[in-house]
Amino acid sequence: MLRDWSTARDCWTGYGITLPPGDGEILGEFGVTCVRISTATGQEVVWAHRLCPTRARVVTVPFDPSRRFGEVVLHDGVPNGERIVQGQRYPVFDEIMLFAPSEIATLAVTVTAADTDDIDALLEVFARHDLGAEVLSSGRLLCTCCSEGSHAVDRAVDAGRQTVLIAADKTRATELLHEWRSGRPDTREWEDLHAAT
């Protein structure tokens, strides 16, 4: 929290945690997790890569555009729930504070895809370029009890016409949407790229 990396490294090492070498900011590979973040409209659980035992970089596009893909959040050390994907369990940590904001705003686009493989291809195009895309209809509303409990995650998406949230500037998003469409122009369309609200 204080960005005193020397003291932080000493503390984590004292707890027996192996850190990447160096004396600056800790940017390790501590695995994938979920973090419950605070948004303008409530709370949302996002996927993140842990950089150290208490910080994680958001790697999904939050559904609430008040938060952003690429943010680094400080989270507590005790899981408060879990998400299960294909039998693997991932802890959910509660956000303490936004540690480092992201400059990547959230855009929205309407896409039409003939089948789910087309949607998967769209998500893959953005992921391959270290950017984010999330199908708006893939979000699930959970009560507090369910959110803080054990919840199986179904990431299945539907084909057809729908809204996709994108974490990229408008120029890059346009380029990647054209790249996606060119893969199967007879089954893929997009329109109305704009800032998410």
Could you explain the architecture of this structure?
The protein is an alpha+beta fold and 197 residues long. It has 2 domains: 26-100, no CATH class; 106-195, Alpha-Beta Plaits (2-Layer Sandwich), CATH 3.30.70. It contains 4 helices and 11 strands; from the N terminus they run αβββββββαβαββαβ. A 5-stranded mixed beta barrel has the order 1-2-3-4-6. Strands 8-10-7-11 form a 4-stranded antiparallel beta sheet, covered by helices on one side. Strand 5 and strand 6 form a beta hairpin.
Beta strands, count: 11
Q: Per the principal axes of the C-alpha atoms, what is the gross shape?
A: globular
Proportion of residues in helical segments: 10-25%
Poorly predicted regions: none
Taking strands numbered 1, 2, ... along the chain, how are they ordered across the largest sheet? 1-2-3-4-6
Characteristics of this structure?
five-stranded mixed beta barrel, 4 helices, four-stranded antiparallel beta sheet, 2 domains, 197 residues, globular, Alpha-Beta Plaits, 11 strands, alpha+beta
